[in-house]
Structures are given as C-alpha cells and as structure tokens.
Amino acid sequence: GAGVSQSPSNKVTEKGKDVELRCDPISGHTALYWYRQSLGQGLEFLIYFQGNSAPDKSGLPSDRFSAERTGGSVSTLTIQRTQQEDSAVYLCASSLARGLAGGKSTDTQYFGPGTRLTVL
Amino acid sequence: DAKTTQPNSMESNEEEPVHLPCNHSTISGTDYIHWYRQLPSQGPEYVIHGLTSNVNNRMASLAIAEDRKSSTLILHRATLRDAAVYYCILRDGSARQLTFGSGTQLTVLP
After folding, report:
1. Is the distance from CB of B93 to CB of B30 less than 8 angstroms?
2. Interface residue of A23, A104, A105, A110 to substitute, partner B, most B CBs within 10 Å
C-alpha cells in the first residue's frame, strides 16, 4: 500500500519568509511525528500527534515552529520567519500506535522521504 | 530513554555477514531494543526489534546478550543496498518519539 508521503520534496526560501511542509500519513495510522535532520546531525524530534489528544510539542525549537493535523490525517508543519539555521531535512513518520499510551514500545514508525528545506 | 553506544563506522564485503554492535549498559527491564536504518537520501526504515530473546525476520537477525547490556544486528549477506546508517534505539513502555543517536555508517564494498 501507499507509504508516508511528503511535499514538497525540496523547498528553497529566503530568510524571513514563512514555509509550510505537508505530510500524508499511512491511512489508518493514528500517530504522526515530525522530526528534522540537519546536515551531518542525527534526527531530532519536533512534535507528535496522537488521535484527538493535544499534541506533544516538546521538541519544537522555537515559537516560530507550529504544526497542525486536520481530521486526524494530513499534517502541516509551518515555520514562520525562517532562519538559515532552519535549513534541514524535515521528516514525517506515522504509526498505528496501539495501546492506551498511544505509543507502545513495540510500535513501528514509518517514515516519509522528507522535505529538504534550504533557507538562503 | 537509556543511552546506546555504537561504532561510528564499519565496512563489510558484499555477500559476507555483517555484525553491527550496540552497547546499552543502562538498559531497563522494560526497554525494547529497536534497529532502524537510513539509506542515503531516504527516511529511516524499521529493521527489527526485540526484548530478551533473539529475533529473526526477512531483513536481519537481532542477537541480545543474556544481561541485555548489548545487542548485535546481523545482516547475513550484505548487499550494496545495505549501505546505510544503522541506528540502535531503546524504547520503554511510554515511548512515543524515537530518540536517534549518531548510528553506525555501514559501507559495503563490492
């Protein structure tokens, strides 16, 4: 079946502009995650959505970053007033997230191909 | 999540087995051991996970030490397509997001 898709695959923007990155999770997956990977760095957690619960925003680096998930499916990550240090690959993942905690330790995450953001 | 330690890089010859080690001396009794890999220019993909017993699937095998303080991901016959960064990750029962370390860059030589 279809995997996680992300758009655009590449985005070049000027410093100070706002950008929106889109994620389409696997159908039926209730959990959705955003991560980012800066050049030569590991993956860094940003935000987590689980069903209708309030999102876990603990990984967002500043208030310029926000995300929403409409109808429990598609998610949009918005970065306002982009800075050069925001340049990175932004990865989305989804999972079934069975269990009361919404994130059982055996839950598998399926990642999209990422959006490469370049801020000039 | 408890911390894991992996070698920065390893090399293997094509069609030979590869053993990728991971140390996790502070693992707790409820931590699962997960392995993901990231091929060049792609998002990470799940490889395998286990708790105490060794595990096998179509991609790899996971050998877990009796004291659970270390584990080894085994690729039985490396192919060029297996060249990737391999991440060993511990997840407890409340785990939501994955916490990635620096992983092991595997190079497969033809």
Report:
1. yes
2. A105
Q: B6: how many CB neighbours lie within 10 A of its CB?
A: 21
Q: What is the pLDDT of residues A100-118, one digit of tens each?
A: 444 456 788 999 999 999 9
Q: How far apart are CA B41 and CA A38, in angstroms?
A: 13
Structure confidence by residue, pLDDT tens digits, B44-58: 999 999 999 999 999
- Which residue does chain B place closest to A40, by CA atoms? B102
Pairs of residues, one from chain A and one from chain B, whose beta carbons lie less than 8 Å apart = 67
Chain B residues inside the 8 Å CB shell of A42? 100-103
A43·B45 Cβ contact <8 A = no
Tell me if B46 and A108 make a contact (CB, 8 A cut-off).
yes
Q: In what order do the strands lie in the sheet with A65-69?
A: A5-7, A19-24, A75-79, A65-69
* Residue corresponding to tokens 């996971």: B62
